[in-house]
Amino acid sequence: MDRDALAEFLLRRREALTPADVGLSTGARRRTAGLRREEVAQLATMSTDYYTRLEQRRGPQPSVQILAALARALRLTEDERDYLFRLCGYSAPDRAHATEYVRPGILRVLDRLHDTPAFVVSLLDEVLVQNDASRALIGDASGLEGFQRSGIYRWFADPEQERKRYRAVDHARQSRALVGALRAAYGVMGGRSRAGEIVAELSSRSPEFVRLWEAHEVGRRFEQHKVMVHPELGEIEVDCQALFTEDESQALIVLTAAPGSEAASKLEFLRVLGTQTV
Q1: Do 90 and 63 touch, CB atoms closer than 8 A?
Q2: On the chain, which terminus has fewer CB atoms closer than 10 Å, C or N?
Q3: Where is the HTH cro/C1-type domain positioned along the sequence (predicted)?
Q4: Residue 106 and residue 245: Cα distance in Å, rounded?
Protein backbone atom coordinates (compact mmCIF):
# COMPACT_ATOMS: atom_id res chain seq x y z
CA MET A 1 0.00 0.00 0.00
CA ASP A 2 1.41 3.38 -1.05
CA ARG A 3 0.20 5.70 1.72
CA ASP A 4 1.88 8.82 0.30
CA ALA A 5 0.37 8.41 -3.16
CA LEU A 6 -3.02 7.49 -1.68
CA ALA A 7 -3.09 10.60 0.50
CA GLU A 8 -2.17 12.88 -2.40
CA PHE A 9 -4.68 11.24 -4.72
CA LEU A 10 -7.55 11.58 -2.24
CA LEU A 11 -6.64 15.20 -1.53
CA ARG A 12 -6.47 16.20 -5.20
CA ARG A 13 -9.72 14.45 -6.09
CA ARG A 14 -11.45 16.08 -3.12
CA GLU A 15 -10.17 19.52 -4.14
CA ALA A 16 -11.36 19.00 -7.72
CA LEU A 17 -15.02 18.58 -6.69
CA THR A 18 -17.49 21.28 -5.74
CA PRO A 19 -20.45 20.74 -3.41
CA ALA A 20 -22.77 21.18 -6.41
CA ASP A 21 -21.01 18.27 -8.15
CA VAL A 22 -22.26 15.90 -5.44
CA GLY A 23 -25.60 17.49 -4.65
CA LEU A 24 -24.53 19.37 -1.51
CA SER A 25 -25.29 22.95 -0.53
CA THR A 26 -22.43 25.41 -1.04
CA GLY A 27 -22.98 27.20 2.26
CA ALA A 28 -22.21 30.79 3.18
CA ARG A 29 -18.73 30.49 4.71
CA ARG A 30 -16.80 28.17 2.42
CA ARG A 31 -13.19 29.26 1.93
CA THR A 32 -12.29 26.77 -0.79
CA ALA A 33 -14.17 25.37 -3.77
CA GLY A 34 -13.36 21.74 -3.00
CA LEU A 35 -15.16 19.36 -0.69
CA ARG A 36 -14.39 19.23 3.01
CA ARG A 37 -13.11 16.03 4.56
CA GLU A 38 -16.29 15.57 6.55
CA GLU A 39 -18.34 15.87 3.35
CA VAL A 40 -16.36 13.10 1.64
CA ALA A 41 -16.76 10.96 4.75
CA GLN A 42 -20.50 11.60 4.77
CA LEU A 43 -20.84 10.66 1.10
CA ALA A 44 -18.82 7.48 1.67
CA THR A 45 -20.71 6.63 4.90
CA MET A 46 -17.55 6.45 7.02
CA SER A 47 -16.26 8.42 9.98
CA THR A 48 -14.50 11.72 9.36
CA ASP A 49 -11.66 10.54 11.62
CA TYR A 50 -11.07 7.46 9.46
CA TYR A 51 -11.01 9.46 6.23
CA THR A 52 -8.74 12.10 7.79
CA ARG A 53 -6.22 9.45 8.77
CA LEU A 54 -6.08 8.24 5.16
CA GLU A 55 -5.25 11.76 3.96
CA GLN A 56 -2.69 12.15 6.74
CA ARG A 57 -0.91 8.89 5.81
CA ARG A 58 -1.84 7.30 9.13
CA GLY A 59 -4.69 5.00 8.12
CA PRO A 60 -4.73 1.20 7.83
CA GLN A 61 -5.20 -0.52 4.51
CA PRO A 62 -8.81 0.23 3.45
CA SER A 63 -11.06 -2.69 2.60
CA VAL A 64 -12.45 -3.24 -0.88
CA GLN A 65 -15.83 -2.01 0.38
CA ILE A 66 -14.27 1.22 1.70
CA LEU A 67 -12.52 1.84 -1.61
CA ALA A 68 -15.72 1.28 -3.55
CA ALA A 69 -17.48 3.80 -1.30
CA LEU A 70 -14.67 6.34 -1.79
CA ALA A 71 -14.79 5.87 -5.56
CA ARG A 72 -18.50 6.72 -5.50
CA ALA A 73 -18.08 9.65 -3.11
CA LEU A 74 -15.28 11.21 -5.18
CA ARG A 75 -17.04 10.51 -8.49
CA LEU A 76 -14.03 8.62 -9.87
CA THR A 77 -13.89 7.38 -13.43
CA GLU A 78 -13.24 3.67 -13.93
CA ASP A 79 -9.53 4.36 -14.61
CA GLU A 80 -9.28 6.44 -11.43
CA ARG A 81 -11.08 3.77 -9.44
CA ASP A 82 -8.67 1.09 -10.73
CA TYR A 83 -5.73 3.32 -9.78
CA LEU A 84 -7.16 3.76 -6.27
CA PHE A 85 -7.47 0.00 -5.80
CA ARG A 86 -3.89 -0.60 -6.97
CA LEU A 87 -2.52 2.11 -4.65
CA CYS A 88 -4.00 0.15 -1.77
CA GLY A 89 -2.54 -3.17 -2.82
CA TYR A 90 -5.55 -4.70 -4.60
CA SER A 91 -6.08 -5.82 -8.16
CA ALA A 92 -8.41 -3.62 -10.15
CA PRO A 93 -12.02 -4.88 -10.14
CA ASP A 94 -13.19 -6.92 -13.13
CA ARG A 95 -15.01 -4.32 -15.21
CA ALA A 96 -17.21 -6.93 -16.84
CA HIS A 97 -18.73 -8.12 -13.57
CA ALA A 98 -18.10 -5.34 -11.07
CA THR A 99 -21.35 -4.08 -9.60
CA GLU A 100 -20.11 -1.73 -6.86
CA TYR A 101 -18.89 1.04 -9.12
CA VAL A 102 -21.50 3.63 -10.06
CA ARG A 103 -20.61 5.81 -13.03
CA PRO A 104 -20.31 9.55 -12.35
CA GLY A 105 -23.00 10.33 -14.95
CA ILE A 106 -25.61 8.30 -13.05
CA LEU A 107 -24.49 9.84 -9.77
CA ARG A 108 -24.87 13.35 -11.18
CA VAL A 109 -28.47 12.59 -12.09
CA LEU A 110 -29.12 11.14 -8.64
CA ASP A 111 -27.52 14.16 -6.97
CA ARG A 112 -30.17 16.39 -8.53
CA LEU A 113 -33.11 14.30 -7.34
CA HIS A 114 -33.86 15.60 -3.87
CA ASP A 115 -37.64 15.71 -3.79
CA THR A 116 -38.46 12.19 -4.94
CA PRO A 117 -37.18 8.72 -3.96
CA ALA A 118 -34.33 7.55 -6.20
CA PHE A 119 -31.67 4.86 -5.92
CA VAL A 120 -29.22 2.84 -8.04
CA VAL A 121 -29.44 -0.96 -8.10
CA SER A 122 -27.13 -3.65 -9.45
CA LEU A 123 -27.98 -6.76 -11.44
CA LEU A 124 -28.58 -8.52 -8.12
CA ASP A 125 -30.96 -5.83 -6.83
CA GLU A 126 -28.34 -4.42 -4.46
CA VAL A 127 -28.93 -0.77 -3.59
CA LEU A 128 -25.55 0.80 -4.35
CA VAL A 129 -26.47 4.39 -3.52
CA GLN A 130 -29.72 6.14 -2.59
CA ASN A 131 -31.00 9.58 -1.69
CA ASP A 132 -32.66 10.60 1.57
CA ALA A 133 -36.18 10.39 0.12
CA SER A 134 -35.48 6.78 -0.85
CA ARG A 135 -34.25 5.94 2.64
CA ALA A 136 -37.43 7.38 4.10
CA LEU A 137 -39.64 5.30 1.78
CA ILE A 138 -37.88 1.92 1.46
CA GLY A 139 -35.34 2.00 4.29
CA ASP A 140 -31.59 2.56 4.56
CA ALA A 141 -29.59 -0.12 2.73
CA SER A 142 -26.13 1.11 3.71
CA GLY A 143 -25.77 -1.27 6.68
CA LEU A 144 -26.58 -4.47 4.80
CA GLU A 145 -23.80 -7.00 4.23
CA GLY A 146 -23.24 -10.27 2.38
CA PHE A 147 -26.21 -11.89 0.69
CA GLN A 148 -28.51 -9.56 2.65
CA ARG A 149 -27.47 -6.73 0.33
CA SER A 150 -29.48 -8.37 -2.45
CA GLY A 151 -33.18 -7.55 -2.44
CA ILE A 152 -33.74 -10.79 -4.36
CA TYR A 153 -32.13 -12.80 -1.59
CA ARG A 154 -34.00 -10.99 1.18
CA TRP A 155 -37.35 -11.44 -0.60
CA PHE A 156 -37.10 -15.23 -0.38
CA ALA A 157 -34.84 -15.70 2.66
CA ASP A 158 -36.68 -13.28 4.95
CA PRO A 159 -40.16 -12.91 3.43
CA GLU A 160 -41.97 -11.84 6.60
CA GLN A 161 -39.78 -8.75 6.90
CA GLU A 162 -38.94 -7.94 3.30
CA ARG A 163 -42.42 -8.23 1.83
CA LYS A 164 -43.98 -5.72 4.21
CA ARG A 165 -43.21 -2.98 1.67
CA TYR A 166 -45.59 -4.55 -0.86
CA ARG A 167 -49.28 -5.42 -0.76
CA ALA A 168 -50.01 -9.14 -0.40
CA VAL A 169 -51.83 -9.09 -3.75
CA ASP A 170 -48.55 -8.06 -5.45
CA HIS A 171 -46.27 -10.65 -3.83
CA ALA A 172 -46.61 -13.34 -6.51
CA ARG A 173 -45.88 -10.88 -9.32
CA GLN A 174 -42.87 -9.47 -7.47
CA SER A 175 -41.52 -12.97 -6.81
CA ARG A 176 -41.62 -13.81 -10.52
CA ALA A 177 -39.99 -10.50 -11.46
CA LEU A 178 -37.14 -10.97 -8.99
CA VAL A 179 -36.41 -14.53 -10.08
CA GLY A 180 -36.46 -13.44 -13.72
CA ALA A 181 -33.95 -10.70 -12.86
CA LEU A 182 -31.71 -13.19 -11.04
CA ARG A 183 -31.88 -15.56 -14.01
CA ALA A 184 -30.74 -12.69 -16.27
CA ALA A 185 -27.90 -11.84 -13.88
CA TYR A 186 -26.91 -15.51 -13.72
CA GLY A 187 -26.63 -15.58 -17.50
CA VAL A 188 -24.35 -12.54 -17.51
CA MET A 189 -22.21 -13.35 -14.47
CA GLY A 190 -22.04 -17.14 -14.67
CA GLY A 191 -22.65 -19.97 -12.24
CA ARG A 192 -19.49 -19.36 -10.23
CA SER A 193 -20.34 -15.74 -9.52
CA ARG A 194 -22.24 -14.19 -6.62
CA ALA A 195 -25.40 -14.73 -8.66
CA GLY A 196 -24.67 -18.46 -8.65
CA GLU A 197 -24.04 -18.40 -4.91
CA ILE A 198 -27.39 -16.71 -4.30
CA VAL A 199 -29.14 -19.31 -6.46
CA ALA A 200 -27.54 -22.14 -4.50
CA GLU A 201 -28.38 -20.56 -1.15
CA LEU A 202 -32.02 -19.82 -2.01
CA SER A 203 -32.48 -23.27 -3.55
CA SER A 204 -31.74 -24.77 -0.14
CA ARG A 205 -34.02 -22.36 1.73
CA SER A 206 -37.09 -21.54 -0.34
CA PRO A 207 -39.39 -24.00 -2.15
CA GLU A 208 -41.12 -21.02 -3.74
CA PHE A 209 -37.82 -19.89 -5.23
CA VAL A 210 -37.05 -23.38 -6.56
CA ARG A 211 -40.44 -23.57 -8.29
CA LEU A 212 -40.00 -20.19 -9.95
CA TRP A 213 -36.34 -20.81 -10.85
CA GLU A 214 -37.29 -24.01 -12.66
CA ALA A 215 -39.70 -22.01 -14.85
CA HIS A 216 -36.66 -20.40 -16.56
CA GLU A 217 -38.25 -16.97 -16.96
CA VAL A 218 -35.58 -14.39 -17.83
CA GLY A 219 -35.65 -10.60 -17.79
CA ARG A 220 -35.28 -7.47 -15.68
CA ARG A 221 -38.67 -5.83 -15.34
CA PHE A 222 -39.60 -2.78 -13.32
CA GLU A 223 -43.34 -2.23 -12.99
CA GLN A 224 -44.26 1.21 -14.32
CA HIS A 225 -46.88 1.63 -11.59
CA LYS A 226 -46.66 0.09 -8.14
CA VAL A 227 -48.06 0.50 -4.65
CA MET A 228 -45.48 0.76 -1.88
CA VAL A 229 -46.50 0.17 1.73
CA HIS A 230 -44.89 2.44 4.30
CA PRO A 231 -44.98 1.09 7.89
CA GLU A 232 -46.63 4.26 9.20
CA LEU A 233 -48.22 6.04 6.24
CA GLY A 234 -49.72 2.98 4.59
CA GLU A 235 -50.12 2.53 0.84
CA ILE A 236 -48.40 5.00 -1.51
CA GLU A 237 -49.06 4.75 -5.26
CA VAL A 238 -45.99 5.62 -7.31
CA ASP A 239 -44.85 5.54 -10.91
CA CYS A 240 -41.50 3.84 -11.48
CA GLN A 241 -38.97 4.93 -14.11
CA ALA A 242 -35.71 3.04 -14.73
CA LEU A 243 -32.65 4.59 -16.37
CA PHE A 244 -30.12 1.91 -17.32
CA THR A 245 -26.38 2.28 -17.78
CA GLU A 246 -25.04 1.56 -21.27
CA ASP A 247 -24.13 -2.04 -20.38
CA GLU A 248 -27.41 -2.44 -18.42
CA SER A 249 -25.51 -3.66 -15.35
CA GLN A 250 -27.10 -0.97 -13.18
CA ALA A 251 -30.33 1.00 -13.14
CA LEU A 252 -31.31 4.31 -11.60
CA ILE A 253 -34.82 3.87 -10.21
CA VAL A 254 -36.95 6.99 -9.72
CA LEU A 255 -40.31 6.85 -7.92
CA THR A 256 -42.79 9.68 -8.45
CA ALA A 257 -46.44 10.38 -7.66
CA ALA A 258 -49.06 12.31 -9.60
CA PRO A 259 -49.05 16.02 -8.64
CA GLY A 260 -51.76 16.90 -6.16
CA SER A 261 -52.48 13.28 -5.27
CA GLU A 262 -52.60 11.77 -1.81
CA ALA A 263 -49.46 9.81 -2.67
CA ALA A 264 -47.62 13.05 -3.57
CA SER A 265 -48.57 14.49 -0.18
CA LYS A 266 -47.25 11.38 1.57
CA LEU A 267 -43.96 11.54 -0.34
CA GLU A 268 -43.59 15.21 0.57
CA PHE A 269 -44.28 14.38 4.21
CA LEU A 270 -41.62 11.64 4.09
CA ARG A 271 -39.13 14.00 2.44
CA VAL A 272 -39.52 16.45 5.33
CA LEU A 273 -39.67 13.78 8.01
CA GLY A 274 -36.73 11.74 6.70
CA THR A 275 -36.13 8.44 8.49
CA GLN A 276 -37.66 9.59 11.77
CA THR A 277 -40.78 7.87 13.03
CA VAL A 278 -44.14 9.63 13.02
Answers
A1: no
A2: C
A3: 33-81
A4: 8
Residue 147: name the closest of 116, 172, 182, 175 by CA.
182
Span(s) in the chain for CATH 3.30.450.180: 104-273
Q: Give the domain 104-273 fold.
A: Beta-Lactamase (3.30.450)
Amino acid at 215: A
Q: Is the pLDDT of residue 267 over 60?
A: yes
Residue burial 46-78, b: 16+ Cβ < 10 Å; e: rest: beeeebeebbeeebeebeeebbbbbbbbbbbee
Cβ neighbours for 145, distance < 8 A, ≥ 6 positions apart: none
Q: Which fold has domain 3-87?
A: 434 Repressor (Amino-terminal Domain) (1.10.260)
At position 202, the amino acid (one-letter code) is L
Quote the DSSP letter at residue 274: T
CATH 1.10.260.40 boundaries in the chain? 3-87
